[in-house]
Amino acid sequence: MTGPFDLSGKRALVTGANTGLGQAIAVGLAGAGADIVAVGRSAPDQTAKMVAAAGRQLTAVAADLSSIEPIGRVMAEAGDIDILVNNAGIIRRADSVDFSEADWDAVMDVNLKVAFFLSQAAAKAWIAAGRGGKIIQVASMLSFQGGLRVPSYAASKSGLAGLTKALANEWAGKNINVNAIAPGYFVTNNTEALRQDETRSRQILERIPAGRWGTPADIAGVAVFLASAASDYMHGSVVPVDGGWLAR
Asked: In this structure, are strands 83-86 and 11-15 parallel, antiparallel, or unpaired?
């Protein structure tokens, strides 16, 4: 593969790459030529097979990203990377009047705090080496909207959109691109409760002009674009991939 989307010779660290959107992003980047470092609690065995089928290598780094404690080790085991995808995320559902501090902290730590400190670690390494890199945050429709019964998730994803802009302001001049993908309603573990709720699932589908839930493969192309030279002049963008949800 040659051209502005070619990732040959690049190395991408993807958190939460064992399933769902993270897996699709990792496989998409591999298909464009990148080797993958998959970081998460579970072994990314299936992802490794898919990356191998694309002719690339996958390095698995086991880490619990519920805190920033493993970040130094993760970066050391990952080695030199060119692309960071902060995909790992969790969600907790409860009425806001009943929402617990433990659930609030757990979501904010994974979705926002760890994403910041991984971004910081990558940027430090690139700046020290005198080169740039690409950071892709995985935001959400709730970076734009409030949602229902997910206050910490909405806060974390809104914060991630703001963080994307803040880091872009500081690092664009250092040849570091920081952008975000905002997935719409995709078939993932995080949306299983919504899809099992017949009323909510119907309401969601009625609003999506594309008439369907997104599949993980729908996000891969945007990730390749944001990881490649094709997006070199993009900084601080939050790109919706939502089947038209926001346009409605």
From this structure: parallel
233 noted as active-site residue: no
Which position among 126, 153, 171, 245 bears the catalytic label?
Answer: 153
Residue 96 lies in a domain: yes
* pLDDT, tens digit (0-9, with 9 covering 90-100), for 93-132: 999 999 999 999 999 999 999 999 999 999 999 999 999 9
3 within some domain: no
Closest-CA residue to 138 (of 241, 10, 218, 11): 241
Q: What is the spatial distance between Cα 193 and Cα 180, in angstroms, rounded to a whole number? A: 25
pLDDT tens per residue, range 134-147: 999 999 999 999 99
Residue 86, Cβ neighbours under 10 Å: how many? 30
Which CATH number do you get for residue 198? Answer: 3.40.50.720
Domain with 71 in it: 11-234
pTM > 0.85: yes or no: yes
Amino acid 1: pLDDT: 57
DSSP letters for 65-133: TTSSTTHHHHHHHH-S-SEEEE---------GGG--HHHHHHHHIIIIIHHHHHHHHHHHHHHHHT--E
Q: How many domains does the chain have?
A: 1
